[in-house]
């Protein structure tokens, strides 16, 4: 967003309004888009992306950590190459229970062998690229446990 006449799908906005916290892994493009998302209501925890205007890089960190119901979630835009990504993110964020990332705009959810660490890319509600669908993610945090769900917003 906001290339062309894109806007957040109504279903996406409804999910965001009902959230306790909005996590965004970058590529707002403009400050106006960040402000639009902030105006939806819940607090926004975000990082800047590689196509964001310079003012966003001045306002937002490259990486951050948030806590939710006893769990720690790191947010970063680019988690690097697919090969070794899960282990690389675990090493980069050793205190995190999960890492949410963007960059590719391709949905992905991986867990380590015991389910104790996860990485999640929610895709994008506006820029699906090679993904067949527009998507977003939902994270439920309870008693230190995290569950990520991918929400299909249509083609």
Provide a concise account of the structure shown:
With 155 residues, this protein is of the alpha/beta class.
Folded structure, characterized:
With 155 residues, this protein is of the alpha/beta class. It contains four helices and nine strands; from the N terminus they run H-E-H-E-H-E-E-H-E-E-E-E-E. It has helices at 10-17, 31-38, 54-59, 85-92, and strands at residues 22-24, 44-46, 63-68, 71-76, 98-101, 108-111, 118-121, 134-142, 145-154. The strands form three sheets. It has a five-stranded mixed β-sheet, with helices on one face. A two-stranded parallel sheet has the order 1-2. A two-stranded antiparallel sheet has the order 8-9. A hairpin with a 6-residue loop joins strand 6 and strand 7. The longest helix is centred in the N-terminal third of the chain and has 8 residues, at 10-17. The radius of gyration is 15 Å and the shape is globular. It starts with 9 loop residues before the first helix and ends with a strand. The model has no long low-confidence stretch (mean pLDDT 90).
Q: Span from first to last CA?
A: 16 Å
Topology as a string of helices (H) and strands (E): HEHEHEEHEEEEE
Strand order of the largest sheet: 3-4-5-7-6
**Which structural class do you get from the secondary structure elements?**
alpha/beta
The unreliable regions are none
Number of helices: 4
* Overall average pLDDT: 90
Count of β-strands: 9
């Amino acid at each position: 967003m906001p290339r062309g006449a894109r806007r957040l799908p109504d279903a996406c906005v409804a999910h965001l309004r009902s959230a306790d916290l909005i996590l965004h892994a970058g590529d707002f493009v403009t400050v106006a888009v960040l402000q639009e998302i902030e105006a939806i209501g819940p607090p926004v925890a975000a990082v800047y992306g590689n196509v964001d205007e310079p003012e966003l890089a001045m306002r937002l960190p490259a990486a951050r950590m948030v806590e939710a119901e006893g769990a720690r979630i790191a947010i970063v835009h680019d988690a690097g190459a697919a090969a070794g990504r899960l282990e690389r993110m675990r090493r980069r964020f050793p205190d995190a229970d999960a890492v949410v990332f963007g960059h590719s705009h391709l949905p992905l959810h991986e867990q380590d062998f015991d389910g104790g660490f996860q990485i999640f890319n929610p895709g994008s509600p506006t820029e699906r690229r090679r993904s067949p669908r527009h998507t977003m993610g939902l994270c439920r945090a309870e008693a230190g446990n995290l569950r990520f769900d991918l929400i299909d917003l249509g083609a």
